[in-house]
């Protein structure tokens, strides 16, 4: 495997931006960044008490809406890391965007984070500024995991209705933590070791793992919303993303895949000005546009 030549930082980046030992520092850093970035913004709270960062549409009247969930492997992070994506959706599509905070493993294992984003979806569906028939959910990495799990949960519980899911390099399969064929020297940003640590914490209280805890466990994808799923070939999550796309297709769920040759985990955030990142983000934004303007 080689990295995409349009991503020159790949060779300089660490194999993992966070390790179990550095996790407390990363959480503290993200809390400080999050506090600074949310000042002056509209902040609401879901039924579980977690903050929801709001990025209103410009136009009046019911608008399409996106619940965009931040990454961090289910163990750290906040919506500050997703401001650029949320603002781009508003600026280019004029959709209403909400980005929730949620609790982290291992202190709060499954289903705490899922409960938090589900409460945010409930809140979003009730807002007078949005059209409840045109709601998309999505997220990056661990946020993509929660979006996929939320789509399954909403289907199984009869709502709220979700028109589309947008899964950006999502973390979908707990079984990846036990793979012994992944060479950490060929991966960047999120390592097999950190992946195992995150999954172990998130699933700590489970004897049986349901699909809402590890979406790759899903047997029947029928009734799930149309999906965009994107991942790089140099991403730890590549194989599980491709397999999940096939699970959706088998159930006749419309799927658009964006598989980026030689792209590592987090490439679009690490090298946003590269042509490969710009092309990928354009595909993702266009998928949201098509999904929510033709419903």
TrEMBL record:
One of its GO terms (molecular function) is hydrolase activity. The keyword Transferase does not apply. Keywords: Hydrolase. InterPro entries: AB_hydrolase_3, GDXG_lipolytic_enzyme. PANTHER family: AB HYDROLASE SUPERFAMILY PROTEIN C4A8.06C, ALPHA_BETA HYDROLASE FOLD-3 DOMAIN-CONTAINING PROTEIN-RELATED. This is Alpha/beta hydrolase. Residues 66-268 form the Alpha/beta hydrolase fold-3 domain. It comes from Maritimibacter dapengensis.
């Amino acid at each position: 495997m080689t990295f995409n030549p349009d991503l020159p930082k790949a060779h300089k980046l660490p194999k993992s931006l966070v390790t179990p030992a550095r996790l407390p520092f990363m959480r503290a850093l993200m809390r400080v960044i999050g506090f600074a970035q949310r000042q002056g913004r509209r902040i609401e709270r879901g039924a579980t008490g977690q903050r929801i960062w709001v990025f209103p549409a410009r136009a009046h009247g019911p608008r399409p809406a996106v619940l965009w969930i931040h990454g961090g492997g289910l163990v750290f992070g906040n919506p500050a890391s997703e401001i650029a994506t949320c603002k781009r959706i508003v600026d280019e599509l004029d959709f209403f965007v909400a980005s929730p905070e949620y609790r982290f493993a291992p202190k709060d294992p499954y289903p705490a984070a899922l409960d938090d984003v589900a409460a945010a979806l409930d809140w979003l569906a009730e807002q007078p500024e949005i059209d409840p028939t045109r709601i998309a959910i999505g997220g990056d990495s661990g946020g993509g995991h929660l979006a996929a799990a939320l789509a399954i949960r909403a289907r199984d519980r009869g709502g709220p209705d979700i028109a589309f899911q947008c899964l950006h390099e999502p973390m979908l399969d707990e079984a990846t933590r036990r793979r012994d064929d992944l060479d950490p020297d060929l991966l960047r940003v999120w390592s097999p070791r950190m992946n195992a640590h995150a999954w172990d914490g998130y699933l700590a209280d489970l004897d049986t793992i349901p699909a809402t805890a590890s979406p790759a466990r899903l047997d029947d994808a029928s009734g799930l919303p149309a999906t965009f799923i994107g991942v790089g070939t140099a991403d730890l999550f590549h194989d599980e993303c491709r397999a999940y796309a096939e699970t959706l297709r088998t159930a006749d769920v419309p799927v658009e895949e964006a598989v980026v040759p030689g792209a590592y985990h987090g490439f679009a955030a690490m090298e946003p000005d590269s042509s490969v990142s710009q092309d990928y983000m354009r595909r993702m934004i266009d998928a949201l546009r098509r999904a929510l303007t033709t419903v």
